[in-house]
Every structure is written in C-alpha cells, then in structure tokens.
Amino acid sequence: MKILVGAFQCESNTFSAAKAGKDSFYILHGDEAKNKLFASHLFEEAGFDVVPLVYAVSLPSGMVTRECFDEVLADFKAVAANHPDAAGIYLYLHGAMFVEGLGSGEEWTVKELRKTIGDRIPIALAQDFHGNLSDGLVPNVQAIAGYRTAPHTDYDDTERRAAEALMKLVSGGASVPHFFRIRVQFADAAQTSVEPYVTVLKMIRELDEDPCVVTASVFNGQPWVDAPFMSASVIVYSCADHDEIHAKAKAIADYFDAHKTDLKFGVPAVAPENVVEAVRSMLKPVFVSDSGDNTTAGAAGESDVLVKLFRGTGLRTLFTSLYDPDAIAKYADKAVKRGKILGFVGEESGEGVVVREGDVDVVYSTVRTSFTMKEHFAAMGLDPADYDVVVVKQGYLWPGAAELAASQVFCMTPGTATNDFSTLPFRNLVGDYYYVKPEHR
Description:
The chain is an alpha/beta fold. It has 12 helices and 21 strands.
C-alpha cells in the first residue's frame, strides 16, 4: 500500500508586510523531500511504499502570496493525481499559514487535495503548537497531531503520533472530530512548562492511552493572525465511544478556559525605555528579546529600536540582526566581520556582516533570520560570551539561545509581533478574547 507524504509550512503574521513568495520557501522533491520527513521511515518500516509529494518550508512571514501558494499546491496535486491507488496521505503542515485572498492555507491545501484524490482515503496532519484550526479544515482530515512543547522540541514525536494515527486509520475504520475553541490570544507567555498548559497537556496525554482515541491535541494558536478562526483549541479524533470521548475533550477545553488567567510571563517583561537599566545588574550575557520585531513570529526584522537604546551605554552589545538585502554592498567598507547566515535548521540561507556602532556590534543580514542556536553565531564568527548583552529577534527564547544566556529579559518593543494586542488593528476576530497583559516595568 502507498502512503503519500509532504510538507507545506509557513507561520503567517497577517500584520507583517514581509509576504512569503516562492523564493521564501525551501522546496524539495523526490527522495530529498521524502527523507526530510521523520514519518517516512516509520511508514517504510511498517511495509508501506512511501511516495513524496513536495517538501516546502518557509521562515515565518507575513501572508503567503496567492501566486506562490497556487504554484506549490499545483505540484502537490500533480503528484497525487498520479497515485489514485494511495491508501492515505500524511502532511506536515504548520497550522497558521494564511494565504492572501484565501485565508487558511492548511484548509485550502487539504480541500484542493480532496478534489484530486476524493474522500475515500484518510489524511493525517502533524502540526505546530501555534496552529489555528479553521472550521473547514477539521472535517476534511481524519487525524491531527500537534507539538506538545513550547519552545518546540518534540518534532519527531509529533510526526510519530501523526504517522501511527494514519496507519491505524488505513488498517480500517473512520474517525470523528471533537473540536473546541478557547478564545485567547496567548503569545510569548505561552510555554508548556507553566500552567495552565502543564495540566492541560497531562489531560491530553491521558487520552493517548484510550484505544478509542486516534489523536488528541491542544493548540495555542498563532495570535498575530486577523481571522475569525484564530484561537487556541482542543481537537480529539475518536474511532469509537464517540460520546464518551466528546465529553472528555470538552472537559479539557472547559478546564483550559477556566484557567486561562493562570498564564504568566516566566521572565522579566521590561518596557524599552527601562531595558538598559534592567540588564545592568543581571548576570552576563543577558539575552534580550526584541519581541515586537520577532522574526520567528513573522515580523520583518527591520526594527533598530534597541540598537539606538544600547548605543553609548557602556554595555558591550551584540544586536542580531537587521534585515537588509543589500547589506554586503552597503556595509562592505564598515564591516568588522563577514560570514554566513543560517536558516532555522542550520542550512546556509544568506550572508551577513557585522558593523561596529560604538558599544554595539550590529549584524546586518541579507535574509530575514533569528539567531536561535550557537551555530548561528558561529557561522558569523561571533561568541555571545564576549558580550554583556545579546539582542535577538525572538519572543520567548528558543532552547538553543536560552542555553547561551546567563540571564533573560523580555523587552516589550513595538511592532507587528507585539504582545500588546491592543495596539494592533484587528478587524476580523469574533467574540471577546483574553490575553496576558505583561506587568512590565
């Protein structure tokens, strides 16, 4: 039996002007695409023939352009059309792709594939914890497994759960979704090591032991998406005892909603005007999150607010980074270092230069990026330990960055990834939303 596998991922921020065209995507076909997916070898070990569709993954951005989406999706459909005998489809999506003029990229991907392969075979999804589930997506797939960690570390385990669910469905049986929304805008305070997520995920994992459950997931949602389906959610698919599973899923959603106010920031949240004094007494290096211009949440990566604030302070500061596609030519005469800019998974994606501006070393990058691990610094010939302060374009620190930090500060900078949602022009949300208002100083 054949399983079709593919990935189509972009985390969209609808307030960001940095739209994702085809040149924003890392695209693979054939065996290269197949081998990028952890699930592929699980299917092969189980005796399935694995047929790769497309592997297309982008850095978080603004909306995906319609032209790009249609072109990549056409490749998915062309391969699928050549395999009408496929037993199932496995897709590794993000969950928060937003396509200009369409809306949910995940919904349209699945619906268009259904037009090609019909309704007879199951589709299983692996998705990011920050997925927004649209009403049109849920009934068109038979299983959804989401990350259970934020910061994310369980990529392979999530693929495993989605793959095992698909193999269960291919062996016979149907699934029924039990879907509940929790209208919150949880941003960078939402880490799975704190409440209410500790208890919510414990309840989700208990469902894993129920043979009537196909998949059980909780999603935080991507809060910088202006759409009626933006929300946190609980989604459970059952293959039997549907009423009992529905009640259990509802109990998890009800608990989440009742305890949403338990969520708090885990590190100091500081207003920009106070950040310099805040870091002076902290263990060095202090990693400062430029949260409003967080490129891992789709922001443009062009704000120099913190460069200006740390210049002339006497604090040795490394600023990573400012996006400028003309950086190499523009700063050739001023650069004190030149190196490679790495992508999220360590691949070379661009070039960078380091320009010294008084107390501050600024990395100018030809691509939008975020320094999330030691390899990003090493590729530019930089060592965070040489600095008092390291500014990164993140919200909560990614694990690889956190390992390099002696202290952390969450700076409430303005921008399209701000955690102060009252400053963003939402027009399409339905109902009242709760969000964590940092008590910054």
